[in-house]
Amino acid sequence: MGKQGSGIEHEVTAEPESPGLHALRQLAMAEIARDIELHSALGEEPLHFLPTLPTLDEQVVLDLQRERCTLPELAAERARAYHPAARPGAAEEFEFGLLRAIALEYPALSGAVWRLLGRAPRQLGRAG
């Protein structure tokens, strides 16, 4: 299981990291570093903002989720799920399906997916 210290560690697995996942983690680490730099430049206390940052694997999942929501077929499905006339629970089902697909494609990110599913709606881009 990964550490929760600074939010930059990733899950340790017995399997070797795929080159694709390695590249995604490098991009996510750069994004987290930019967030830390921004918060610091704004004079925020690290003790307050560091615990709110996602872990490295959570950032990878959030980036993949954001990227996939821009795909035309998923953008339309997401719009239907979040439409005010959508049935109750449609948005949660959409998010669950999207994150489940990410976990199936990248098994090393499964723990991060489950943690994100248990978090507040704002973490997944939902209003709340």
Write up this protein.
The protein is 59% helix and 0% strand. It has 128 residues and is an all-alpha fold. The longest helix has 23 residues, at 19-41. The two termini are 29 Å apart. Mean pLDDT is 85; it is low at 1-7.
Going by helix content, strand content and strand pairing, the class is mainly alpha
Beta-strand share of residues: under 5%
Q: How far apart are the termini?
A: 29 Å
* Poorly predicted tracts of residues: 1-7
Major sheet description = none
Helical stretch tally = 6
Helix content: 55-70%
Described by the principal axes of the CA atoms, the overall outline is: globular
Task: Name some characteristics of this structure.
128 residues; mainly alpha; 0% strand; disordered N terminus
